[in-house]
Amino acid sequence: MAYQPIPAPTPAGTQFTSPVPIIGPQYCASYPVDLAIVKKVLSITDGNFVVTDINGNVIFKVKGTLLTLHDRRTLLDAAGNPIVTLREKIMSAHDRWQIFRGGSVEAKDLIFSVKRSSMIQFKTKLHVFLANNTKEDVCDYRIEGSWSERSCVIYAGESNTVIAQMHKKQNVQSVLLGKENFSVTVYPNIDYAFIVALIVILDDINDEASED
Q1: Record's superkingdom (predicted)?
Q2: What are the distances in angstroms from CA 13 to CA 16, 83, 143, 160?
């Protein structure tokens, strides 16, 4: 059974009254979930993250393998079991990532994919397509905002319905320790493992953009 974070105050305008599982129903809470995400910015090979609740309890870890042909990361639960594998699709014009169940990268285990909405962007805008949305005429979810300010918002489809939003949490100590902290509020009944996977991809795409 997945660890259940401690409830936070319900945000205004909550839209979903029943769970919306993308990775799994065990990651859908009936209350808002506040998560803290710590990125080890000085890590060369691992691109690692640790995700905790507001009390510092570890919920997820992210392991990265960045020095291979495919940029690949794995979202793990607190015990180190793989939940999903995130793989960048090479030779993709829009920085497409594919997310597979567990440790797999087989097509049958594809859950969703993420790509830039356009080649040239001054602000972050990514489109998310579930595996069964093969036409990709309309995205299932989208991410918009300013990654440099860590003020991105995740919406349901092309609507104005917010399902999660992130905020920067930086302090002098974390900078000195080579870490970058930010938080995300996941709205009730939204799959918080799905949201964490999106933020990991968002970070990688913007890291690559900053290097161009």
Answers
A1: Eukaryota
A2: 9, 30, 18, 11
